Amino acid sequence: MHIVNSNSKSSVGSNHWKLNLDEGKVVQENEDGGNSDDMMSLLTGKVVENGEWKILTNRKANDKEKSVHGVQQSEHSEKKQPSLTCGKPANETQYDHLRGITNRNEHSHIPEPEVALIFKKKGNKNSQITVDVNELEEKLRKAKKEKPKSAHVYNQIGNFWRIKGNTQLSIECFRKALSISPNNPEVLLNLARVLFNLQYLDDAIFLTRRSLVMQPATQNSWLQHFTLGEILKAYGHYQEASQHFKHALDLNPGFQPAQAHLREMEGIPAPSVTQYTLFIILFLVLGVVFGVITSIETKFDDRRGG
């Protein structure tokens, strides 16, 4: 709920969660956080390497760079570990026909730091949570080693890459998870939200509806309904979107982003009734004219026959 509350376009305070460049963590921004915007610094900085968003730290004064044979090197260079991936991409899944998945190598990279809330420990009521991205990466690396064929682990690594902003790797991890568990509602919904952010609305709505169908009756499906409401609203299908937002509120009372969407749509004028009326009148007129012409031709033929 907190993830969507932070990530929703209509929710208030959507920038409360940010990447801390100095600490390499996703942290909650203080209300008096001043004018500094670490996320903007991340987006405007030259920090993309092989499609991965890097968190750069400020160099200390004594950490100077030196030139060796014309190549800039850092005095305190760290040994780099291989990037956390889901291994060899899945050969195929039953969802590869979707355009957003087919074009996965062409997508722009969209960091989603709010997704870090997925990894919040259960029972932790402290809202001032910080998520250490490096520590999270090591935990996922260990989990992958222990369970190399776990759809849940691949799903979590996919969410990790959503935080980092590598859309291609996140989709590949979700594909890997779906190759193991094709009807996993959580994986389907996570992939749907990635494609929704990329504006592949047809793909997103297909995956979300599939997730809703596959959601066990014993589990709450409010997030599927809320996501469907967001996608349908983006389509301009306000009546159907409103129904899904209301259903989400029935399952999760007081959920503010759904309430905000409903309030916003109440201010959107409905399609003009006059347009529908004119269409119906025109259709009826054409029907009457066709009937009259047919009747005249029939009578004319009868007279000639007589």
UniProtKB/TrEMBL annotation:
The record's annotation in PANTHER family points to: TETRATRICOPEPTIDE REPEAT PROTEIN 17 (PTHR16091:SF3), TTC17 PROTEIN (PTHR16091)
Mind telling me which residue stretches traverse the membrane in this protein? 276-296
**Which keywords are on file for this protein?**
Membrane, Repeat, TPR repeat, Transmembrane, Transmembrane helix
Species the sequence originates in: Pinctada imbricata
Record keywords: Repeat included?
Answer: yes
Q: Does the keyword Ligase apply?
A: no
Identify this protein by name. Uncharacterized protein
Pfam families in the record: TPR_11 (PF13414), TPR_2 (PF07719)
Top-level taxon of the source organism: Eukaryota
Q: Which Gene3D superfamilies match?
A: Tetratricopeptide repeat domain
Stretch list, region Disordered: 58-91
Kindly list the biological process annotations in GO that this record carries: actin filament polymerization
Where are TPR repeat segments found?
A: 151-184, 222-255
Enumerate the SUPFAM superfamilies for this protein.
Answer: TPR-like (SSF48452)
Gene Ontology cellular component list? actin cytoskeleton; cytoplasm
